[in-house]
Amino acid sequence: MKLMSPGLAALMAALMAALMTALIAACAPEAPGAPAELPAADAAAIEAHMAYLASDDLEGREAGTPGFDLAAAYVAGEFAKIGIAPAGDSATYFQEITFQRSVRAAEGRKFEVKDAAGNLLPLTEGIDAVVYNSLRAPEASVDAPAVFVGFGIDAPELGRDDFAGLDLTGKVAVMLSGTPKGIDNEERAFYGNRKLKNISDRGAVATVSIETPTSKGVYPFQRLLAEGRLEGASLAWLQADAAAYTNAPNIQATSAVSLEGAPALFAGAPANWEAIIAAAEAEGGAVTGFDMPLTISITQRSTHDTVRSANVVGMLEGTDPELKDEVIVISAHLDHIGISRSIEEDTINNGALDNASGIATMLDAARMLKNGPPLRRTVVFAAVTAEEKGLLGAQYFVMNPSVPGTIVANVNLDMPILTYDFTDVIVYGALRSNIAATVETAAATMGVAISPDPTPEQGIFTRSDHFRFVEAGIPAVYLKPGFQNGGDIAWADHQARNYHRPSDDMSNNLDFNAAARFAELNARIALALASQDARPLWKKDDFFARQFNGPMEP
Q1: Which of 27, 88, 281, 549 keeps 20 to 30 A from 304, CA to CA?
Q2: How does 192-202 read in b/e, with b if 16+ C-beta sit within 10 Å?
Q3: Which pLDDT band holds residue 185 (cuts at 50, 70, 90)?
């Protein structure tokens, strides 16, 4: 086993004095006459947390960098000051994770397509096509027949199997980007996320994703080339056998082809490109797969190394002998996207609202809960790493929990936009479990309304750390301030000007009174979940409960 990273080792030594004090306080029984209500939220403390976490000194808090280590040490220090007991590895606050890091090599890639007569098609890597980096191996070459698999969706609930009658063993799977229209948006996102696994499970060794008019409208292929995102690092956490975790182990290379380059792939195919794309863009996306008269050669080259980064985990142990082993997890991601390759003077992505705001409000909620009424269930606070790399810190925590007991619920705080006086909140997953009723009651005590998802087409329920809990069958919700009282304008402004940009910093007219109210709401929700008689459950026959064998209401 490798030693702890030098940055964390040094920082942990500085925490030990505060930690010993915290251990004594956290393990002590609640004093008689504990307050019947939560203490007030602290807007100034939230501002101070955000100011440090979003400072240039932390260089954007990218997972696996010294800036992230500083952020992790800060959160651990705040847990210790509050009196939150450590719940990471070896009686520390840190659950350290070793990641394999992969970066696309500058040269040596190949993407070639030959027709049945052996003629090369006019597709050029870096112009019409791209070959991505790989976490599986530093180098791999594939030369195999191609099979068109439509959208690559396997949905028994919908009576749909895009792989019916196709043999993918040892083949290159050619698929349409995105997912069919006309499916429930959250479920549609779920099917989209499982495409690579579906293809790997059927024995394919490589994939080609084809841009469609719909996917081009969301994130154009040419923008991918222009913005330099292909050069960014990918991460995967290492398992006990030192292999990088993946749910698609057969896939050796992945690639993409532009909308303009796609017609060349379908010359001489059983169906022409115009008919395929017309069907794909229609409601239901009824596209039939077939063997393609093509051989596709892909060579990927990547540089590999390992980095370490830690989840920061603390807990308040429950007081009820029968319920304290049922664990409520409040999560927020601590990482951001680091330093951009940019011609602009400011290249540090400070991540004030993504997600220093979520961490800061979680810290204040933890303080309120520590000094509030006794908690019957255990409440865990998890500041997770590598959300921006694919929800990896949360995935590792759920699959390798550092806390005792059974996790029965998760409430996730990610990118709350705290620039306006919110009067409502959006609860992603509200219709899927009875956690929503708890949220609604807590919000009502503060005069805050619950609003439906205003952008269901984005499938946000599958796109933040809470979904890793869902994949383990655990009821989970994701909260953010809603679109009322100017919230729609605030959200649109953030997305247009600041999202994943250096301008997401502390200069954006942040409303710390609103931040305090958001912290109070989350503290009230955690208190209610920790205090009620019955554990949270999925609604009966909910789609995700069935997919992941979660506990449902009778």
Answers
A1: 88
A2: bbbbbbbbbbb
A3: confident
Contact 102, 304 (CB under 8 A): yes
Helices (H) and strands (E) in the chain, counts: 16, 18
Alpha helix positions (H), 31-114: 43-53, 66-82
CA nearest to 212, candidates 176, 263, 180, 183: 176
CB 450 within 8 Å of CB 508: no
**What is the chain's length?**
554
Residue recorded with tokens 């847990």 = 79
Cα 317 to Cα 175: distance, rounded to the nearest angstrom: 48
Q: How many CB atoms lie within 10 A of CB 502?
A: 20
C-alpha separations of 62 from 12, 57, 239, 340, 508 in Å:
20, 12, 21, 11, 21
Q: DSSP readout, 505-521?
A: STTS---HHHHHHHHHH
pLDDT > 70 in the chain, percent? 93
CB 345 within 8 A of CB 353: no
CA 138, 305, 504 angle in degrees (round to 5)? 110
Cα of first residue to Cα of last residue in the chain, in angstroms, is 46
Per-residue pLDDT at 15 exceeds 60: no
CA distance 472 to 228: 34
3-class DSSP assignment, residue 363: helix
Q: Which two tokens stand for residue 487?
A: 């919230």
Look up residue 524 and give its two tokens. Answer: 């009230």
Taking Cα atoms as reference points, which of 533, 524, 534, 530 lies closest to residue 376?
530
Which residues face 283 on adjacent strands?
Answer: 181
Is the separation of the CB atoms in 432 and 544 below 8 Å?
A: yes
Contact 550, 474 (CB under 8 A): yes
Q: Which two tokens stand for residue 90?
A: 């070896």
Taking only the tens place, the pLDDT of each residue in 467-501 is 999 999 999 999 999 999 999 999 999 999 999 99
- Residue 461 exposure: Cα atoms within 13 Å on the Cβ side: 28
The answer to whether the peptide bond before residue 355 is cis (omega within 30 degrees of 0) is yes
pTM of the shown model: 0.91
Question: For residue 290, what is the enclosing H or E element?
Answer: strand 290-316
DSSP structural state of residue 336: B
